[in-house]
Specification:
Helix content: 25-40%
Protein name: ABC-2 type transport system ATP-binding protein
Strand content: 15-25%
Structural class: alpha/beta
Order of helices and strands: EEEHEEHEHHHEHEEEHH
CATH architecture of the largest domain: 3-Layer(aba) Sandwich
Radius of gyration: 18 Å
Number of domains: 2
CATH class of the largest domain: Alpha Beta
Bound molecules: adenosine-5'-triphosphate
Shape: globular
Domain ABC transporter: 6-236
Oligomer: single chain
GO molecular function, one term: ATP binding
Largest sheet: 6 strands, mixed
Keywords: ATP-binding, Nodulation, Nucleotide-binding, Transport
CATH topology of the largest domain: Rossmann fold
CATH superfamily of the largest domain: P-loop containing nucleotide triphosphate hydrolases
Family: Belongs to the ABC transporter superfamily.
Length: 241
């Protein structure tokens, strides 16, 4: 059994004749922040769609917390929390109503859900806003509510697809900081898809995805080397600054 939070081997995906992912292999170790760095069209969302079974993976293998996604989908998906680019919460419901609904989708009973909701709201710093509608929250608070939703069933690994897009600098920093705190305080593993290089610390694990292929994987500081991450990324991908 794999000890990694997420272990992907030789994963490919085509849209018609367009190859969106080409033999992708990557590992997210337990209790780690792994950044998945790629420009628009690199294949990040396609990868997330395969991991969450929105698309069927016909090639390669995906394991979540040791569970093979094709052989044991229920166990694998139960270990996974996902924050997609698009909103998953109902804007007209309160934060608490949204979380209750998602708790019930995960088969969490009413009594247990109450405690879980209090806990995840505390984790994302929204305890005071439980009774507010989603529409009454700022953009950054809405992202934090989305993260609370993704945590309600206590996943081993959290996938976040461009979680800071559209946020101002302060909210971006808050969302990133709380995500990092989840690792330190609760042992959650994180796969953080982004195109923003200054969100990545030298000590993070880094996967560079470009045109559907993994170009580099390792400690971000080692990949960046003397040249720095931006220069290295531009040289590797051929993308112009
Ligand atoms: N439903 C689809 N049908 C056809 N092609 C698609 C579809 N979804 C994605 N693609 C193509 O697959 C490739 C990877 O797209 P994907 O959305 O996974 O990239 P991304 O890194 O998530 O980019 P972005 O951040 O812009 O969403 C692109 O060439 C894209 O045009």
């Amino acid at each position: 059994m794999s000890s990694a939070a997420l272990d992907i081997t030789d994963l490919s995906h085509q849209f018609g004749r367009r190859r969106a992912l080409d033999q992708v292999s990557l590992v997210v170790p337990r209790g780690n922040f792994t950044a998945l760095l790629g420009v628009n069209g690199a294949g990040k969302t396609t990868l997330f769609s395969l991991i969450t079974r929105l698309y069927d993976n016909r090639s390669g293998r995906i394991r979540v917390a040791g569970h093979d996604l094709r052989q044991n989908p229920a166990q694998a998906l139960a270990r996974l929390g996902v924050v997609f680019q698009s909103r998953a919460l109902d804007a007209d419901l309160t934060v608490r109503q949204n979380l209750s609904y998602h708790a019930s989708l995960h088969g969490i009973g009413r009594h247990q859900a109450k405690g879980r909701i209090a806990q995840v709201l505390d984790q994302v710093g929204l305890s005071q806003r439980a009774g507010d509608r989603i529409t009454a929250l700022s953009g950054g608070q809405q992202r934090r509510a989305e993260i609370a939703r993704a945590l309600i069933h206590r996943p081993d690994i959290l996938l976040l697809d461009e979680a800071t897009v559209g946020l101002d600098v302060k909210s971006r920093a808050e969302v990133l900081a709380l995500t990092r705190a989840l690792i330190a305080d609760h042992g959650v593993s994180v796969l953080w898809a982004t195109h923003i290089m200054d969100e990545i610390h030298p000590s993070d694990d880094l996967v560079i995805l470009h045109e559907g292929r993994v170009l580099r994987q390792g400690r971000a500081g080692d990949i960046a080397g003397q040249a720095g991450l931006t220069r290295t990324f531009l040289d590797l991908t051929g993308v112009s600054a």
